[in-house]
Request: fold
Amino acid sequence: MNIDSITNGYVIDHIEAGKSMQIYEYLNLGDLDCSVAIIRNVKSKRTGKKDIIKIDEFIDINMDVLGYLAPDITVNVIKDGEIIEKKHMELPEELKNIIKCENPRCITSVEQDLDNIFKLTDRENRVYRCKYCESKAKNN
Amino acid sequence: MRHLMNITDFSVEEINELIEVSKDIINNGSKYSEKCKGKQLATLFFEPSTRTRLSFESAMLSLGGSVLGFSSASSSSTAKGESVGDTIQTVSCYADIIAMRHPKEGAPEVAAQTTLVPIINAGDGGHNHPTQTLTDLLTISQEKGTLDNLTIGLCGDLKFGRTVHSLITAMSRYKNVKFILISPVELQLPDYIIKDVLEKNNIEYKVTQSMEEYMDELDILYMTRVQKERFFNEADYIRLKDYYILDCNKLGKAKKDLCIMHPLPRVNEIAKEVDSDPRAAYFRQVKYGKYIRMALILKLLEIK
Reply:
């Protein structure tokens, strides 16, 4: 299957197979006017199968979202049809308004104006805890 | 400016220093009677708590300061829909230090973002209650003469009991401390405390459902109440509330110098007959709570 190359924009590569829709939702890619391609179950030497997302425009990508959801992915920045940068993700130290605290006893459950902030407390096990009530975030 | 949100905000050295100041207050109370003259403590209790609020107020009055505040959310602007941040910013214009209790977990952290004065967390839901832990540490230090080399039995609700979680965290920083975890299966200590605190620090612990099994090994027996407000399901509360009741008979095998503690209020988990046993330290514990809060107020106001 062929998808046209993009001229200016991003190719989000090495997404774990099946996870592209989740990334699409979290990055709000449905709100964009430009071409966005989701390619699922592409053959991969490294992992067998992978997903790819192509975005045909320069937009503000929330790298914290990508780092949190899929730290193993690569974001290729494309300019004039050439890869000018390969960005590798890492788990962000802090997540701001990316996930919500699900603890019904947390102050964020009643004060809607508060930012939902999670801190990385255990990098090895990818544990994030709510800044306020310290509840563990569910693994994505 | 320092706040106290969580017991681990203070180092062991700082806690030891607070204990030393408390002991000096116990022995030389009059020396401290005007230390906070002209200072005001606001006690903001968005959820009722007679004991903790009065302990803070008594502490500040004994230091020569004065107190203001409210004792329920219904008598504050919260009833009008004001946010915690706004209430705190307002009150911090009037007071020099704030002690706050809130039913929602993490509310003091929100307060710390807008306050102009030190904040003391006087309990936030089932999350933290660091001044209870400071009280417990002073009690152990006073009653046992040390915080090292102790076997501590924790009995009752170890799942929702925030005082238990904080005490384990605090005591895990002292030498050669062992824990006996006594609870019904449904109220056992959460895995994250076992893994992140006990196992991470190589602390010896035993889990049992029997109150008597290790009674003869204990230096401290810390009883807790099964708290109705922590349950979403009333049937579970009713089933578990009478699981452990300490009476003189059960203390038969206990050490002569056992120290029986309880954060209070109790319901029925310690029989009244135990109160006259010299090993019952829980009402002395209440008094220590006032002294350590005096020491804490002095520390946060940076008064020597």
Q: What stands out?
A: The first helix of chain B runs from residue 12 to 27. Chain B has two domains: 7-128+289-300, 131-286.
